Amino acid sequence: MDDTSGKRLRSFQRALPISLLRAREASMRRFKKHVESYDLTLQQWRVIRALADESPLGSKALSDRCVIMAPSLSRIFRTLKNKGLIHAVKTDDRRERSVALSDNGHQIFKEISVKSEAIYRDIESRFGAKNMAELLDLLEQLREAADSTSET
Amino acid sequence: MDDTSGKRLRSFQRALPISLLRAREASMRRFKKHVESYDLTLQQWRVIRALADESPLGSKALSDRCVIMAPSLSRIFRTLKNKGLIHAVKTDDRRERSVALSDNGHQIFKEISVKSEAIYRDIESRFGAKNMAELLDLLEQLREAADSTSET
DNA sequence: TATTGTTATACTCTATAACTATA
DNA sequence: TATAGTTATAGAGTATAACAATA
């Protein structure tokens, strides 16, 4: 990008929300293509990742972790069940309708993860491992700071 | 957030795309409510901000800066024109249909900016000014790193 | 021929409200 | 009464392709 317009441009480009959006957009581009080549949306993939990390999980936990609204999750559950990637799991609280990864779900998670990790490491190698660790720390702190203000 | 599940949880929560998404979601919450109270969507607001920074701009420049697809921009132009916030501007290249902020557009930009800046400073005061500057730098570097890989 | 932008289309996501079932 | 989740619905965004006008 050229920077001929100088300061005026900078004030917009350095705004926090747009910076987060553009960084995300740039870093997601390759992940997105990769995941979509498996006929999964990014949101579906986030749900699969979260479940690979911890299963079973209910709608509410997944909604928080994946930043997906409950109605969207209902649809995603239906889709992933139809694909045989997740299945219902009974829990003590019978209001909850928790789900867990199926064997097929675990398999596709592993399959997609291979290239996904490679893409990540490629970005990290250009960005710098130290920078990456620092960025992830700052993002977590930012989230806490922003959450604490919105509670008032 | 509790961290009882430890390492397994961490691997998902520390993933770059989800970290960017959650940080953005948390830091945007209050901006969003504020902007929407003026009957503007966040995308419309991004266009207004970009035009307040530099006018006139064509569809392509705005698409890059605001991370909005061209067809969405066409619709946003129509909406903002109907609201009297932007107007068409003729340029040398007659393919371009550049737009600029109207007087009303400048006024609403200033009006919204007051509280928007206050929200920003509130978040910054909790997050730390040094952290904020560091984060913005890292986000820019990340974007460059990710862009350079996707060009291959 | 390539580029800028609009329109058409199909799909997905957001966000709210109304509802069911369970606690 | 409160909570977990589904369904319905309206609006907005994503993404691609087809198109018009201009370079």
Query: In percent terms, what proportion of residues of chain A is strand?
Result: 5-15%
Largest interface: A-B, 57 and 57 residues
Extract low-pLDDT stretches of chain A: 1-7
- The quaternary organization reads as homodimer
Helix content of chain A: over 70%
* Straight-line distance between termini of chain A: 40 Å
Order of SSEs of chain A:
HHHHHEEHH
Q: Calculate the mean pLDDT score of chain A and round it.
A: 90
**Overall radius of gyration of chain A:** 19 Å
The total of beta strands of chain A comes to: 2
Number of helices of chain A: 7
Question: What gross morphology of chain A would you assign?
Answer: globular
Structural class of chain A: mainly alpha
Neighbour order of strands in the largest sheet of chain A: 1-2
Offer a concise description of the structure.
Chain A is mainly α and about 150 residues long. The first copy, chain A, is built from seven helices and two strands, in the order H-H-H-H-H-E-E-H-H.
List keywords for this structure.
disordered N terminus; mainly alpha; 152 residues; 7 helices; 5% strand; homodimer; DNA-binding
